[in-house]
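ok so heres the complex, two chains, lmk if somethin looks off
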Amino acid sequence: MAKRAPILEVKDLVAHYGTIKVLDGVSFDVQHGEILAVCGASGCGKSTLLKHVIGLLKPTSGTIHMWRRDIASLDEEQFNEIQTRFGVSFQSGGLFNSLSLYDNLAMVINEHKKYEPEITDAIIRSKLAMVGLEHAQHILPSELSGGMKKRAALARALALDPELVFFDEPSAGLDPITAAGLDELLLNLRRSLGLTVVVVTHELNSVHNVADRILMLDRGKAIFFGLQDEIEHSDNERLRQFFSRQADAAMTTRNVDVED
Amino acid sequence: MAVELENRDPLLLRVTGDLSEDNGRELFTAVESLIAAKRDRVVVELSAVEVVDSVGCAYLCRAQEHARKGGLALSVLGARGGPAQFISLFSSSLARSKPLPRPHVGFLEGIGDKVFAAFAEIKQFGLLMVETIYWSFIAPFEKKGVRWAGVWDEGYEIGFRAVGIVMIINVLLGLIIAMLSAAQLKMFNAEIYVADLVTIAFTRELAALMTGIVVAARSGSAIAAELATMVVQEEVDALKSMGFNPTKYLVTPKIFSMVICMPALTILAMVAGISAAFMLGVFQFGISAEVWGTQTMNALTVENITLGLAKSLCYALVIVIVGCHNGLRVKGGARGVGIVTTRSVVMDIFFIIVVAALFAAASVITT
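and the predicted structre for the whole thing:
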């Protein structure tokens, strides 16, 4: 898989919120057709990393290449072009609350493409059905449950047939059946379209099911980046702790900030 | 990269390269023309397709649907690997997803909904008012406590930070009224009465009114937006679930600080308006400060000042209750917050004018 140039390549990413260092020299890459899981405890910088990679936040230092182009060097127009090639599904959905699900998807498609209305309609209906929301076409996001919002967000992220999808906490708040269904959908899209996925998660089941490689963050540093199997042979304390679900000693002795 | 028609039995439409927007459209038009030509059978051959996307699949599904309606037997053959999987995923999803009618509300139904909504809103408003009055003016005497920290913070925001703008607006309004009336009274050589006019107008009416409007715009909107955002983010539900009474916790501190700040701001506004007229009288009309001062003091009655302050208290209650009422009934997300904020300012100003009119009517009847 490593023969082609990586779709996404992040080198020595350092980021601050004010004076607090959130990311400290994170490097990784994502190959075409790969599913990368970004794991880590709450507050370790997963969501921050995602926001930097998709260009919402500017890093203090380090480079991010997408399709071999440095996103820091792109002007707005070039970046917009890149943006149509990846889709993002945000943690709390990020759906437009004043538009129905159908119109949420329609807006994205009509903004970037000019298809015949019937074609757009077929794409929207099909995408909604892929995530199991065919019955909720004209419902407003505020009337949906958390899990349905998450699925709707994925449908919107997939609306433009992106080559790369970022998925922030897909299974948080989902029942196991739906979560497994979403995992299956991601695998199916990867098989059929060669979709590349970066999924931010701490759902171990989901990681086992879908991820090819895993990036593990701890307090802003990448402590592990590699294949799933390699984790078992790793001697990193935090890594083993995370994957065997052991509580942190600190949890019981001092207050822990809860992220998000 | 094309769609070719091979004329054999059965007819063969061969797609090569990718099944995306251009080839999809070509395939669709080819099928359309076969339907128009009353052909009865066609095979779409996809074995040379390497890449598909949603648009291509959408065209294919649409072609299949039209063929079915037009009596053309269309079969799809030969797709392999990824494309085959995606086509089957796309078309099975689409088949499950019937187009649903958009919700539509009829004319009379719409009117009915609005009437019921209006009644529901009046009820809601009344309940909030009763609760607010209970938690603000009765409960504290039953030793149920007040959040004084909240009162202080709100007071700083609602009162202290509004001082500048209230003063400036009332100085300008004082000048405007003085100049307008002076232009008329000059004809009778009675400019000195401008002092009486401005003093009475500001103490009785204008200071409270202008302060009310400024505070409605500054703080009424802020109250509505704050509460609406809290509702949207489920903070209000969280409060309720932890045993906080939202009225006591959110509305009462605002009532207290508003009830303290509004009369204070109104007094400043009275001073600002009257002194603006004083400046104009002394420096522009050339009337001696002593004369103008005496005239002003004569027009300054306790009755008028009390009336002005009473109005400002009423406006204070209107602003808080209207703001909270609108904030708490927000629906939807960001857009809903915007709507209730606007609505709250409009309602504030409307009710302020209504209250002013009621006071005016009352004073006409009683005299």
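quick notes: Chain A touches chain B at residues 97-98, 100, 113, 115, 118-119, 121-123, 125-130, 134-135, 137-138, 140-142, 161, 188-189, 191-194 (CB under 8 Å). thats all i got rn
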